[in-house]
Each structure stands twice: as C-alpha cells, then as structure tokens.
Design a protein that fits this description.
single chain; 131 residues; alpha+beta; Lipocalin; 8-stranded antiparallel β-barrel; 2 helices; 16% helix
C-alpha cells in the first residue's frame, strides 16, 4: 500500500510539473521601464527617449500605475487570468485592468516584460525590470 501511495504521488507530481502555470502577480510585481512599442495600423516602431518615456508599476496587491514622462497617467487595479488571445490558439496569461476595461497578454523572459494589446490594431510593448 505504501508503494502504491508513493507511485500515485510521483505521477501526480509529474503531471503538475508538465502543466504551465499562469505567471503570478509576484512575478509581475515591480517597476518596469519602457523600451519600445511596435504595431498599430501601420506597424510602426516607437522607442523610448528622454522626452518620451514611461514606467509601469504593478503591485502584488493588484494595483497598477502608468507614469509617462514623470507624470502619473493611469492608476487602476488589475487581475491576472488565463484566457484566449487574438495572437494564439492556446490559453495565455492575460492582465485585465479595472474590471475588464482593457486587457493585455504578457510573458516575462529574464528581466524583460512583453505586453501585447488584445485588439487587432494594438501594439506589442517591451519593458525592462528596474532593479
């Protein structure tokens, strides 16, 4: 019976390891510096500069703030849910801002945050974590 229990635990653990989990607010939490955005109807690229910059702040409590050129532009709340994206057939992690007002899919690789506006003429944004 003990061997059976160990086998069941082993397979349950292996099954959980293979499932991709939705990144948590803890992973997203922090301050992010904008690098560039690309997209829109023309597919143009806009890069950060001394006169055109922004930071995003995500807290583990679910608070969000966007700062543009040193001025707070948006303060709201957010939640993370897995959902359908316009860019993928698979379920992806989505950030829903202020009761589904607007949403973005995202992924984090190293110190880079990749955000995609979930609209057909939206932008793809790249941010770097501020340490």
């Amino acid at each position: 019976m003990k061997t059976l229990s160990i086998l069941i635990l082993f397979f349950a653990f292996a099954a959980c390891k293979n499932q991709e989990s939705v990144p948590s607010k803890t992973t997203l939490s922090g301050k992010w510096e904008w690098v560039e955005s690309q997209g829109g109807k023309t597919g143009m690229t806009v890069k950060a500069s001394a006169v055109n910059n922004r930071q995003l702040i995500f807290t583990h409590n679910g608070d969000f703030e966007m700062i543009e050129n040193g001025e707070s532009k948006i303060k709201t709340s957010y939640v993370i849910r897995e959902g359908s994206s316009i860019t993928s057939a698979d379920k992806v992690p989505l950030i829903y801002y202020r009761s589904d007002y607007w949403q973005q899919s995202y992924h984090i690789k190293g110190d880079s945050l990749f955000l995609v506006d979930e609209v057909y003429d939206g932008y793809r944004h790249i941010y770097l974590k501020i340490r």
